[in-house]
Amino acid sequence: MPSIDIRRPHGLSEADALTVINKVADRMREKFDVKSRWQDGALMFERPGINGKIAVGGDEIHVSAQLGMLFSPLKTMIEQEIRRKLDEHFA
Predict the structure, then answer these.
(1) Which of 81, 78, 84, 80 is nearest to 66 (CA)?
(2) Can you give the CATH number for the domain in which 15 is found?
(3) Which of 18, 40, 55, 86 is in Cβ range 3.0-4.6 Å of 8 for a Cys bridge?
(4) Residues 49, 42, 14, 33: is their CA dihedral positive or negative?
(5) How many domains does the chain have?
(6) What domain of life (predicted)?
(7) From CA 5, how far away is CA 66, in angstroms rounded?
(8) Domain range spanning residue 47?
(9) What CA–CA distance (Å, rounded) separates 31 from 16?
(10) Does 90 have pLDDT greater than 90?
């Protein structure tokens, strides 16, 4: 199963970073019908064909995901979109 593993430094306080991730999660729910929940300091997310987590550290955001067969051909495009969103919110 293809995987995505992206780490991005950020200069926000951890509370502000969590606020941004919550807004991103709301958008993922609205746009892609992604289910999410907080567990052990990370936002766990899933929908058919993809599951992963967004971990927020003091100075880093870590996005990891496993892609099912349906999303495997789209891995590069999905990674590019994640990087674009991270740049938008944490650059």
Answers:
(1) 78
(2) 3.30.310.50
(3) 86
(4) positive
(5) 1
(6) Bacteria
(7) 9
(8) 3-90
(9) 23
(10) no
Tell me the C-alpha distance between 40 and 78, whole Å: 25
pTM, full prediction: 0.91
First-to-last C-alpha distance (Å) of the chain: 30
pLDDT tens by residue, 34-85? 999 999 989 999 999 999 999 999 899 999 999 999 999 999 999 999 999 9
Q: What is the largest CA-CA distance in the chain?
A: 37
How far apart (Å, rounded) are the C-alpha atoms in residues 37 and 60? 20
- Within 10 angstroms of residue 12's Cβ, the number of other Cβ atoms is 16
Match 């993809």 to its residue by tokens.
50
Which DSSP string do the residues of 11-42 spell out, in sequence order?
Answer: -S-HHHHHHHHHHHHHHHHHHH--EEEEETTE
